[in-house]
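Help wanted!
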Amino acid sequence: MEKRAPQREDDKELICLCQGGDRAAFERLYRRYAQDVYTMAMRIVRSVELAEEVTQEVFISLYRDIQKFQFQSAFTTWLYRIVYRRSADQFRKIRKHKDHTVPLMPDDVNGARYEAVESGANPADQAIENEQQEMLEKAMDSLTPKQRAILILRYTHHLSYEEIAHVLRCRIGTVKSRLNRAHKMMQEKLNQLEFF
Amino acid sequence: MNTKSKTIDEGGEQISRDMLRRYLEKEASEAEREAVHRLLRESEAARREYVRMSNYLTRLQSLPSLKPPERVWKNIDGRIADLSPRRVRFPWMYAHPVWGWAAKAAPIILLAALTLGLGSLQQMEFSSDYVVVEDINGFRVEAEQYAAFHELASESPPVRESLLAFCVDASFE
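Answered by r_m:
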C-alpha cells in the first residue's frame, strides 16, 4: 500500500505565520488539521470526552511549541507524534486514578455521539457500510491503544512504515510486526462477528 | 471452509489471510504473488477469501473521519488568548533529532572528558568537524546561507563550524 496523504503546499507559509504568533493563522491551521487530530485521538482513546481533551491539549501544545518545528519532517508526522503522546498521557492518567485498564466506551464510537462526516453513499449501501463499520469498531476495541494507533496511521492517515516508526519512535520491523498482530486480532474478532 | 482458522484449506491448498493482505497491499514476495495467482485460478475458497480480505481492507481505509465539536476550538481559543508561542533560543537543536540528543548528551560527555582529563576536548571534537567542511568546500556557499538564515553568526566559531559541517553533511551530500 503506497497511498500517501497529499502534502499541502501552503502549510509552510501557514506554519511560519503561526511561528510569528499570528492567531488568525493558527485558527486556519486548526481548521485544517482538527479533524485529523480528533479522528486519531478518538480512535485511540475511544471516548468523546477524552478525545476532545486530547485535541485541545495537542493544539495548545502546538501553539506554544510551534517554533520547535524546523521543517525537517512532514508537519503531519510531527503533529501525529504529539497526538500519540497526548493520547498516551490520557491513558496514563486514567490508569493512575482507576488502577485498571482503560474503560472503553463503544457507544461513543458507534452511537449517536459519533459525529462522523457524511460519506454520500446511497441508503442501501450506507446501511451495509454502517453495519460493517460497526463490526470494525467493535473489533478495534479488542486491540491495544498502540495497535489501534498503528492501524489508524496506516489506513486512515496513509503513512508509510517509516513514517509510522517515526511517530511511534520504534523500528520499522516493530511497526510491521505490531501491524500483523493487530490484523490477526481484528480478524479473530471479525470472525466472531461474522464479518468474514 | 473453516472461517476461524488462519488459513483457508481446500483440497490440500492453503492460502493465509496474512499472505492475501500482503498481496493486496503490494507487499508480497514474487513467490507469494505466484502462489496467490495460482490459488485464485484454481480454488473457489481462495477467491471467496480474496473478496472478503479486499472488502476488509477497503472498509478499514474508509472508516469515517470525525469532526470535533465547535466547543473544542472555543476552549482552545480561550486558553491561548493569554499565551504566546515559546521563543526557541536555539532553533537548530530542533532541526534534527541528532542535535536534541547531542544537547542532552553534552553534559555527560563533558563530565566524562573532565574525568578522563581530556582538557582539549573542544579542539579535538571541533577540529574533526571543521575538516568535513573544508573537504567538501563546494558546498560552502549553501552552508553559509544556511548559517545566515538560522542566525548562527553570533555563535562561537567552533559551534558555528560544527553546525556548518553538520548541515553540509546532512543536507547537501
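OP: Thanks! One thing I noticed: Chain B is about 65% helix and 5% strand.
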